[in-house]
Amino acid sequence: MPLEKVAPGSVLELESEPGGRVVVNGTNCTLRVGKNVRLDAAVLIYKEAANAVIEIGDDCVIDGIIRIVRGDGGVIRIGAQTTFNQVGVSMHEAGTITFGRDCMLSTDIHMDVSDMHPIFDRSTGERLNPAQDITLGDHVWLSTRVLVLKGARIGSGTIVGAGSMVSGALPQNVLAVGSPARVVRENVVWTRTMDGQPDLHPPPA
Q1: Which residues are CB-contacts of 169 (< 8 A; sequence separation ≥ 6)?
Q2: How many Cβ atoms sit within 10 Å of the Cβ of residue 68?
Q3: Tens-place pLDDT, residues 151-189
Q4: What's the N-to-C CA distance of the chain in angstroms?
Q5: b vs e for 39-51, b when ≥16 Cβ sit within 10 Å of the residue's Cβ?
Q6: Closest C-alpha among 127, 95, 137, 126 to residue 113
Q7: What whole-number distance in Å separates Cα of residue 201 and Cα of residue 6?
Q8: Is there a contact between 200 and 189 (Cβ–Cβ < 8 Å)?
Q9: Is 3 helix (H, G, I), strand (E, B) or coil?
Q10: In this structure, what are the phi and psi dihedrals at residue 133, rounded to the nearest 5 degrees?
């Protein structure tokens, strides 16, 4: 098991053995991994983080990097049956990133609740760019090279096209493309396999 370091006071609740690096340097942090998970991603919680929680649901396939860099109380939750293929999930200050069930994320995807560096109003000293949570509903598909910015909210069943940037809210069951991503088609459904049968009558929102 590639557990390089686990700081005192941190908790590992592992129902599957990680295949990637696991380094927990933060104070009183928790890593929960469900059943039948293939966790090939590097999971890194830096020493500047405290009380952070990373939860990965059952039957996930996770590759890439998941890291909480700093802040008190950051949370990353990944719903069951979700798959990552070279995805970067970062948290440079405390916030919450939530993925629903059965999400599918392609390669070279990045997201962070923070701009990584603060910006202030020169006259008042007010911070202009605080962290904002990111939320993906169930069965969301993010294509190659999608960038998800702080504050993004993506509705269940939605597809985001390759090379797009999500900076705000996208509704359920739409196809969105562009930078920033805009809805180009509504009332869509998608399947993981070419011969899959779509659920044309999903449960109400």
Answers
A1: 152, 153, 154, 155
A2: 31
A3: 999 999 999 999 999 999 999 999 999 999 999 999 999
A4: 40
A5: bebbbbbbeebbb
A6: 95
A7: 45
A8: yes
A9: strand
A10: -65, 155
